[in-house]
Each structure stands twice: as structure tokens, then as C-alpha cells.
Amino acid sequence: LFQPAVSVGNVGQLAIDLVISTLDMTKVGYFYTDCLVPMVGNNPYATAEENSMELSINAEVYSLPSKKLVVLQIRSPFIKNKYRPFCQTLLSWVKSSKCARVILLSSSHAYQRDDEQLLGSPLRYLLTPDLEKAVGGLLQELNWKEMEKVAAYPGINDTEKVLHIPGGGITKLLFTESCSKGIQMAVLLKFCSEGDNIPDAFALVNYLNEWLQLIKGEVNTSSQWKIPSSWRLLFGNGLPPALF
Q1: Strands (E), 128-225
Q2: DSSP assignment, residue 242?
Q3: Domains of the chain, each with CATH number or no CATH
Q4: Which GO terms describe its biological process (predicted)?
Q5: What is the mean pLDDT of each run of 10 residues along the chain (244 residues)?
Q6: How far is CA 40 from the centre of its chain?
């Protein structure tokens, strides 16, 4: 199961858009919850006029049986104080559906990194203990950096370290709950800032592809991913040619 966290820059959601569009995944259902702001819109992955008027809502499920892959796309923010009920419902569904692994695509505020997190790649990962046993060695071979813990009380007590994911939405809660429930979960995240986050989404989905090889092709390029039709006006109309 792939799913996004509703986090800074909506990077996880944009990356999931690329996965669904590129793999031409089929919508198989909805994830009903009262924890998300209600919304409805046109088909974000329309390929022709015939399917452009299909309706989409705030949480939908897509499937690709050939890769044993299910994707949950979330399109609206959480209602206040509804994080925990949503996580409980989601993890209950994960267990009842017998999902082997969960991969959460997320992001975190770049400006709140500590000194250690400023070094090297802006991409990080986390693995629950159950998944660490299975794939931890592989990710180390890829030279990936695990999300660093930071001082609980900076400048006062630098020895006590905690997991801190500012701007990550439900990321930390979902990860810690998965650890306690024995669920195999990986979190892939990117440090970023609000703005045009399409480049961040490409970086995150390439990071995912480096591990799972969803599509074959040149590593770390955006051309291998199919951009969904809903991105055409994602940041408004383009500038008039007369201005150039």
C-alpha cells in the first residue's frame, strides 16, 4: 500500500499522482472517513473527454494487481483533532486487508532542520522494526540516510533524542502506531518549503523508484513519469507569450 501524508507542500500527494498516472492504475473504491474535509472534483487523471467528467472525492483507492500494488490517494486536509481516529481506522483497514507493507510518502519543513540534517541529500527514510529486518540492509546499500533524531531540549539537554517531523502531518503518529502494532511501514520524506513543489514530488517519486523499481529507465529523471492532466493549471495559467 502506498499513501501520502498531508504534509508541507503536498509533496506526498503529488508523488502519488505521478505513480497513479504513470502506472495507469484503476480506481477500485473509496476510503470513507469523517476525518477529512469533504470535497468533490473532476477526474484528475482524465485522458479523454469521455472520462474527464467522472467525479473524484477526498480519499480514493487505486489498484494494480500485476504489481500487487494498492494506492490510497488523499486530496483534502484533516479536520481538527481527527488525526488519531483516522490513523486508527487506516491501520485497522491495513490489517484487515492483509497489506504486506505500507509506504508513506511525506515531507518536512526544510527550515526546521538541525545541523546534521543540513548535510547531504534532502531525502530521508524511516523503517518500523518489522520492516527493518527485511529491507534495512538493502537501503543501506543504496546509501540512503535514515531520518535523524533531534535533541528533545536543544541547548539544555542534547543527549535526549526524539523523532521530530515538523510539517509532516500524520507522519510521526502513523509511524509510531505502526511500530507498536507490528505493521511493516516505510516512510520516505523530503525536506522542502511551500511553493511550486512539483520538483520535490519528482525527487520523492524517483527516490521511491530507486528502491522498488516501479518503472525502468534512467535514474533520477522526470521524463519517465506521466504528468496527470490535473497538473496543467496546478499553479495557474502560464504567462502570456507577449510578455517574453
Answers
A1: 150-153, 157-162, 185-192
A2: G
A3: 2-222 (3.40.50.10900)
A4: proteasome assembly
A5: 96 97 95 94 88 90 96 95 94 94 97 88 95 90 92 73 93 95 96 94 95 79 85 69 58
A6: 21
